Amino acid sequence: MNGTAVGSAIGTAGIRVARAALTRLMEPSDLAGMALIAVAGPEDAVAFIRSRAHSSAVLEQEMTAVLSVSGTGRWPGLADALSRWRPRLADLAPERDLYVLERLGGGLLIPEDPQWPSALADLELGAPIALWVRGAVGRIPEQKRCIALVGSRDSTSYGANVAAEMASSLVQRGFTVVSGGAYGIDAQAHRGAISAAAQTGGQNGDPRRGTEEGVPPTLAVMAGGVDRFYPSGNEELLRAITEQGAIVAEVPPGTNPTRYRFLQRNRLIAALCEVTVVVEARWRSGALNTAHHADTLSRSVGAVPGSVYSANSAGCHRLLREGSAVCVTDAADIAELADAVGTNLAVEQEGAPALHDGLGVADLLLLDALPLRSTTTVDKLSVVAGLGTAAVLAGLGRLELLGLAQRANSGWKRNSNG
Amino acid sequence: MNGTAVGSAIGTAGIRVARAALTRLMEPSDLAGMALIAVAGPEDAVAFIRSRAHSSAVLEQEMTAVLSVSGTGRWPGLADALSRWRPRLADLAPERDLYVLERLGGGLLIPEDPQWPSALADLELGAPIALWVRGAVGRIPEQKRCIALVGSRDSTSYGANVAAEMASSLVQRGFTVVSGGAYGIDAQAHRGAISAAAQTGGQNGDPRRGTEEGVPPTLAVMAGGVDRFYPSGNEELLRAITEQGAIVAEVPPGTNPTRYRFLQRNRLIAALCEVTVVVEARWRSGALNTAHHADTLSRSVGAVPGSVYSANSAGCHRLLREGSAVCVTDAADIAELADAVGTNLAVEQEGAPALHDGLGVADLLLLDALPLRSTTTVDKLSVVAGLGTAAVLAGLGRLELLGLAQRANSGWKRNSNG
After folding, report:
1. CB distance A88–B258 less than 8 Å?
2. What is the CATH classification number for the domain harbouring B274?
3. Domain check: are A292 and A172 in the same one?
4. B345 falls within a domain
5. Residues of B with Cβ-Cβ distance to A25 under 8 angstroms
6. Signal peptide location in the record (chains A, B) (predicted)?
7. Is the pLDDT score of B329 beyond 50?
8. ipTM value > 0.90
9. What domain range includes position A94?
10. Which of A142, B108, B222, B412 is the most exposed place for a label (fewest CB within 10 A)?
């Protein structure tokens, strides 16, 4: 029904069907395709691809202009692009795809919808044609509330714990945890978010959590079609995400996840989130690719430190060493990066300063010179501390006031708390 | 005998005795004292303190000039300083102190000696009056070869392992490991350095290691007098350091380590070393003080990451988060910071890139579309990959050359290594 809620929006039905078709014909980030849509609009773009026209000087010229603005100088040309798109016309059935999603309790979110995440605009020409959403279509929160937690599939128990705890604590702070629905860190992040939402029942964090307008605990951005729960081992988890949050993909139902689509999916995660945190990653890891996208979009990137002996933290340490990520050890650090609530939690850690922290050099010297058990005289203190008699007397007065020194049978000694 | 080697240097005997005396009269970083020495010279400085003069307008004026140049605008004045120094005249016996060190196989290193570490000049007026050295006096290497490994006394087994391994590997690279001789990280760093020197026997690293002119594996900079091995639990270790390296302090024999002297000692460690690495430190830790000194002296600072659950790594993560330290995970990272050998070891970690790393988007799409077991046709590939027939044929040729694709009964399939 969420699907229909959007699908039946007045005036956009044709555009929605056209965009549904275009997600089938074009791979993610097919810049020529984006240029065609920008120039002709979704419906005419589909019509043109369906036509027998081999090319169009006018279209090609305007597309070249759009592409050059977005930094793509030379491109193979419209004919070449058509040869990519047309072989897929045979499989084209956008109404069927929209119906499939509707039956699964989702729909197609398009830029023309008010709920379209404005953050995706930062991808410029690389922005998705549309988003296939399984779950409440209107549930993708604004960038400021979204935190990506990503990492290796083969996570360690350390990384798994950190991911789950950070996710849970972020949800309690009213954030939505975005990840890729994969095994390992992704799954732990989704689980932590869902469990926190279950515990808080919308009391902590955002009171509207879970409701249609509310902030969902977690989103999964997939590299393949949202009709399939992939990987199958995460089926239950992904089902739970569709109920409390949403599963999102720019590719239509029935599409297989491929290496290329995984890399493209990462740019969506980065674009949707205010902060991307790499919890665990090997020296070479897809999670670093997501971090790189976030960096390119000038979003904040965080990395979780770990043992120098753990290959699964080598990627995080690489980001820290290269200065492309900030060291984050808990949700408070992440919230601080997101410039949101809880900024000062880190400071609290400092704990109460020791009593002697505020002392000047002279008083510190004097305090060091004061014996704990026996007592001593002002003259002795003057020698041991290397201070004049006057300075010793003045200092003893200050230390006594602070409760660090005390008079004892005609001498002085340190208080045990000094 | 090393002591005499320096102690008997022609022309400096008087200055050496004077500086020995001044280390007894003045606490470390007593700027007024440093100003007096700068103005009057060591011998006249002692003579003036011994005299009955209550002050000296000329001296005080020149000292004020020196202090203001070094940023100390207002100071209590010479009379006040004299009241600090004179109470200690009673205990003054510099020849005895020099003799004590000589008997212990050491001596007093003074700025007038050719072996004086030039790096200490960066401390400006805060530079030590002299260094009491137990071990070969000429053995303090140049800054470029010195790496400080510091950290908490209550180290975890993780921190202990990292400290020992980093130290050992640094010595094998010809570096000298400098630390504070304390329990925990310090002790492990010294141990790792000594064991590496024992193993290599001067074959690896610096061939002159261990010899009088050679690079010692490790130095311990102490907060108290070098006549005592403190803490007593490290006696054997410290004895070993005096044999292969040296133990150094700016305070004379018989001086107790105090909180103030520990903080001052940290500035010496930072000043002597090209890089200061904090291996393990709590949120509040003396090791952070050493890092801060290194930062102030614009020396490189490294921090070793660890578990976010370990309180003993919180200080390191704090440094990383605040950007005042670089993330270092092994000796190669540290050597890179020291801008020395082994710079590229970190890169090697990257390992061989996957075969598909160099592929363009089209070939990547094509590779993703190729089935591993069954075979497929060019037309099918064109649909699945979303590429024109011509592009598919060209791409298949490239992939075949790379050994990623292969012809099989009138169709195409992926090679298992693809």
Report:
1. no
2. 3.40.50.450
3. yes
4. no
5. 386
6. none
7. yes
8. no
9. 13-135
10. A142
